[in-house]
Amino acid sequence: MEVSKESILEQIGKAKRGKQKAFSFLLDRYWNEVYLFQLKRVNNEYEAEDITIETFSKAFDKIETFDEVYEFSTWLIAISKNIQIDKFRKKKASIYSNTTIESEETLKKIVDASPTPEDELIREQNLAELLRFIKELKPHYQDVINLRYFQEMSYIEISESLEVPLNNVKVRLLRARKLLAEIITQQH
């Protein structure tokens, strides 16, 4: 079904006012376009999906900056392309830095990489603090975070487990991560 440009602009306006249904509409409408664009670029389903999620997260965070003179899909693709380029550069820099002579010398000087009891205690305290922050979220956001990051379920498995559409899972996860980041920022 073809959706008119006016209808899309109306949904963008609603999203700028924070209406959740508008975000869901935009995600449903443009998900495949962004995902397939990335899949062609990176040739890896998981990486394409992660970049697509990050694209929508960034776009939704900055939606008030969208200029309606342009096509929304073009704006999303530009964001997606920049995210993919940044990830590629970071990966390339990481590979390069890991192959330098200095890093090899540094690795030889490392005595023991196993965590000390102090490291374990810090990790456990950080995890406990993170769990406290997660408990401040609404239950449906807690559920999706728990299933994705602690039980390591795929989006499809989460969708089946919660009996909600796949795109709703993606939107909930985007919103949950954003809200969690806000809570953490406020607490620190």
TrEMBL record:
Classification via CDD domains: Sigma70_r4
All copies of domain RNA polymerase sigma factor 70 region 4 type, residue ranges: 128-180
Domain RNA polymerase sigma-70 region: 28-92
Transcription among keywords: yes
Keywords noted in UniProt: Sigma factor, Transcription, Transcription regulation
Any matching Pfam family: Sigma70_r4_2
Similarity remark: Belongs to the sigma-70 factor family. ECF subfamily.
Protein name per the record: RNA polymerase sigma factor
Native species: Jejudonia soesokkakensis
